[in-house]
Amino acid sequence: MNALEEQALAEISLSPSKGFRVTDYLGLLRASSVILLLIVWEVFGRDVNPLFLSYPTAIARACVQLLISGEFQRQALGSLEVYAVGLVSSLVLGIFLGLLMGRYRLAEYLLDPYVYALDATPRVALIPLLLLWFGLGAPAKIAIVFLSGLFPVLMNTFSGVRTVSASLVDIGRVYGAGEAKIFTKIIVPAALPFIMAGVRLAVGRALIGIITAEMFTAVTGMGALLIRYSSAFATDKFFVPVIFLALLGVILSRAVELLQRRLAPWKETEGAL
Amino acid sequence: MLEVRHLSKVFFEQNDSRKPGLVALYDICLTVRKKEFVCLLGPSGCGKTTLIRIVAGLLPADRGEVLVNGNPVTSPGRDRCMVFQQFGLLPWRTVLGNVEFGLEIEGVPREERRDISRKYLELVGLNGFEDYYPHQISGGMQQRVGIARALSKKPDILLMDEPFGAVDAQTREQLQEELLKIWAKTDTTVIFVTHSIDESIYLSDRVVVMHSRPGRIKEEVLVDLPRPRWEGDVKADPRFARLRTDIRESLRG
Ligand SMILES: Nc1ncnc2c1ncn2[C@@H]1O[C@H](COP(=O)(O)OP(=O)(O)O)[C@@H](O)[C@H]1O
Ligand SMILES: [Mg+2]
Asked: I need a labelling partner for A198 at 20 to 30 A (CA). Which of A87, A232, B12, B94 fits?
């Protein structure tokens, strides 16, 4: 503030507003809401038949048990490994194909029948076929995760490249950029907000993919635990992977959001596809 | 220096790329000397942008040719640089990053291009704004960045497509004056597109008046006002008023 502004402010002499404002306590209110829910759940949950619903302290106990036996960690790690491999390959191929199809007409016309057809097919419908091909082990699950993550990132990258205006490309050309530099210095950064929106979607879809796959095969992983505990009516244990997955989902999407803000600080994320 | 010979350009129909839709430029001939400041003046749609884009090498001509220092233009080149109407900044780069862009493409090492870019930012009066993003600064400042970036390439010919069309009147006058001051210090040839009569007279040595449908050159008007023009009130000079009347007549018909 400069001297004139300060003088003006002094003359206007705003009196500090008094009284209670809800907006000052939003964080506190959110925390209280969660705590209240947990308490209510605890109190009423104890009265419900444990076959149908558990309650927080029982779930916590089950969690400790599972952690001590090491069962949970083993299954979780297995799931995460498959998830990471499938997701990373879907991101790599999705971004690559999206860039190619967005920039080159020829690539678009050659590939888009398959892309649209596969994207329109519900992934679940393909699972039996993939199991037939790859068996019940990790390769089948990786394939399912891969297919779940591929299309959101591919479609978003594609439309991101499509929205790059011709005038941005002209800037590159005026300054002597060849096709490679136009790609790396104009197209990719301009499409980055879209690409990152696609990555965020893919992270969530791939998580759904891995659980669906594991529930189908019911041999290993988080999905297998869900099936095992629910068919054994161990409802308290059942909640442990559920809560773990919820936390994982939240953490991953927050992480991508932070990454997005680092990589694309010039623009708030726009709602892409 | 720059020679445009019998240049014509036809645009085709949007939905039928075989059917001619519009003669954007018809038989354009224009010669510009070294260090000359030429304004292209004409109504919207008369082909000014098309002409300047062909000279820049962004668009091929259908007939005729453009020669720069005797060499035919087929693509963009280091001898020419362009300043865009909507500033043409890259929104994901900072002010400094934008000025560096041209040198980066050229392969100038990082430290060196930083130093050069800082120098040009200072020239356009933007030191201290290196780390801002384009959307954080005003339109006038954005165009200064655009000009600094173009100058950093030391082009022989600076092509400017209504560079001050998107800023307010006051900033516009200020930018015009600064452009003249910068130009006076260099040997750059400037081709400046505008549809403001006053702007064209104030800036240029010669005003090229264009008409539309088909886009063509109607007349060239020499501006015999003394330089530097930022001292005193050139716009109050009776010669300025006479030029304005002449050019307005020429634009009418
Ligand atoms: N890429 C294009 N395809 C078809 N028509 C175009 C294209 N670019 C410009 N035109 C048309 O050519 C004419 C001249 O355009 P332009 O050079 O932008 O005029 P100015 O810059 O003088 O306003 C206009 O009628 C415009 O609609
Ligand atoms: Mg124009």
From this structure: B94
pLDDT in tens, A55-100: 888 899 988 988 898 888 888 898 899 999 999 999 999 999 999 9
pTM of the model: 0.83
Beta bridge partners, B5, equal: B65
User: Which structure tokens are listed for A73?
Assistant: 């960690």
Q: What is the ipTM of this complex?
A: 0.90
Q: Which two tokens stand for residue A168?
A: 């941005």
B252 CA: distance to closest CA in chain A (Å): 32
Give CA–CA dist B142/B134, Å, rounded: 6
Residue A62 is given by DSSP the state H
* Contact at CB, B56 and A174, closer than 8 angstroms: yes
What pLDDT, in 10s, does the model give residues B44-59?
A: 989 999 999 999 999 9
**Would you tell me which residues 156-215 of chain A have a C-beta closer than 8 angstroms to some C-beta of chain B?**
167-168, 170-177, 181, 185-186, 189-190, 192
